[in-house]
Design brief:
Elements: E1 3-9, H1 16-27, E2 33-37, H2 52-58, E3 63-66, E4 71-74, H3 81-87, E5 93-97, E6 106-110, E7 124-127, E8 142-145, H4 149-159, E9 161-164
Parallel strand pairs: 1-5, 1-6, 2-5, 6-7, 7-8
Antiparallel strand pairs: 1-9, 3-4
Length: 165
């Protein structure tokens, strides 16, 4: 099975989660989609204080919590792209939100203005009509319509990198 990967990057509140959710909903009927989300401020909560898995993790151990419908893994170190991808088993498309330094084809999501700090990492930008046209002139990146999920999906299938297969 060919396993493809692409990443989305952009400022907080730009719409990364929304477009990834739309893409996942549209493709999940036909394809196995996996998503990795960066939590740069370590603020996502996955467990409750005092519960068994929280106590096990605080003991210093790496912990996996498994039920009939999901698996959650808590590790005391970060993981590589390959380590995380292997946890998903078979998939068609891996979407990474954030982690701009990972070597993946990357679409920047912007509203209002393009933040030039992201440009060295991007191969494409997806913008809406709030981004002034002058900011799009001379960009060394493909320009996509943030409100056209099909256009973004078409770009993904043409430009995603192969992880395996």
């Amino acid at each position: 099975m060919k396993q493809l990967a692409i990443a989305f990057t952009g400022p907080s509140g730009s719409g990364k989660t929304t477009i990834i959710e739309k893409i996942s909903k549209k493709l999940s009927a036909k394809y196995k989609i996996a998503i990795i989300k960066h939590d740069p401020k370590n603020k996502a909560l996955f467990d409750q204080e005092g519960k068994d898995s929280d106590r096990f993790f605080k003991s210093g151990a790496d912990v996996a919590v498994i039920s009939d419908v999901k698996t959650t893994i808590f590790k005391h170190k970060s993981s590589t792209l390959q380590e995380l991808a292997s946890n998903f088993g078979e998939f068609d498309l891996l979407i990474v939100e954030g982690l701009k330094t990972w070597d993946l084809p990357r679409i920047g999501i912007f509203r209002g203005k393009i933040d030039p700090d992201y440009l060295p990492y991007l191969q494409a930008v997806a913008v809406d009509n709030t981004v002034p046209k002058e900011q799009l002139e001379g960009l060394n990146a493909a320009v996509l319509n943030l409100n056209d999920t099909d256009e973004i999906i078409g770009y993904i299938w043409k430009n995603a990198t192969t992880l395996r297969g």
